[in-house]
Amino acid sequence: MNSQDLSVFRKLIAQRIAELDEGSDAGRDARSVVELDQQAVGRLSRMDALQNQAMAKAQQTRRDIEKRRLHLALRRMDEGEYGYCDTCGEDLPQGRLRIDPAATLCVSCSRG
């Protein structure tokens, strides 16, 4: 992979990290402590609020994992290891990297 290709993927990764950060900021209130709403009636309202909070926390966990994968991809770029399958060492198709710039396995190796 040439330096121009790496630059394109570096920008794509930076863009995805920024999008994940925006999602984290937007979901901050949903992850906060659930306040008891005196106007809402019954236990179900509290259960709904707790369920929404749990879903927001799960989404944040997925965003954190994705950010970690993207930062590892940037590290692999710096080390000259980006774009190669971790198992067989073959070049990863650029189409695959456009879909998942943090991919570390080719299609054959990912199928197991």
UniProtKB/TrEMBL annotation:
InterPro entries, per database record: Znf_DskA_TraR
Domain Zinc finger DksA/TraR C4-type, chain residue ranges per copy: 80-109
Gene Ontology molecular function, alphabetical: zinc ion binding
Gene3D superfamilies from the UniProt entry: DksA, coiled-coil domain
Domain of life: Bacteria
UniProt KW Zinc-finger keyword: yes
Keyword terms of this UniProt record: Metal-binding, Zinc, Zinc-finger
Presence of the UniProt keyword Transcription regulation in the record: no
Zn finger residue spans: dksA C4-type: 85-109
Protein name per UniProt: TraR/DksA family transcriptional regulator
Origin species: Ruegeria sp. PrR005
